[in-house]
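Action item from last week, closing it out:
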Amino acid sequence: MKIALAIAALLAPVVAQGSAHSAAPACRIPPSVAPEPMPAPDGPRRTGPTTGTTLAISWSPQFCRTHPADPWQCDGRLGHPGFVLHGLWADGLPGQWPQWCAAQVPSAETLRRNLCMTPSPRLLTHEWAKHGSCMAPTPEAYFAQARAAYAAVRLPDAVALSRKPGLTAGDLRRAFIRRNRGLTPASIRISASDGGWLQEVQLCADNAGRPKACMPQGMRDGDPLRIWRGE
């Protein structure tokens, strides 16, 4: 929780004038969801040390463009989100980040309460099982960390940016920095599809919540970028 609070404190002077996500589309949280089984690990269990965090923020319209039948996120029942939280990940030494620690199954109600942050019960469960289990004692504590870190980020208007002629990854980086002055260019990793369509923005921080260089860096500032608007 300390890292999430440190990130929030770092960005607080910029977000204090209003909600960080005030421009986000409204989310219609459902009255109930079904519980999700824990996923099978896709790699070995690793327990440390931790060198910081990565806050991974996905551009939902692009995901739904390639996964239109995906339940919850893309079928419209929660609305039509823009940026959503993929997850909060513990960083470690190269190739040795903590993952797949011992974990309890998150309750259906815990998943339901966090769907407006991460619009997929399955993804929420996966993020807790793979990453959060090494960062917090319970699913509720992990999602509280993730919410605090995500809520501290003031998101740029990606739809407006999508209409900019000659849009580059540097334009998007600068848009994040303008709204979150604690960030640095090197601390913002941008990933896109082979066609240059925005997929995800990742914000890298050290154990004190200060921006650190993402490794690898991802797209360079001059790389052309396109943003799918979902139209």
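Closing note: The beta strands are 52-59, 83-91, 188-192, 198-206.
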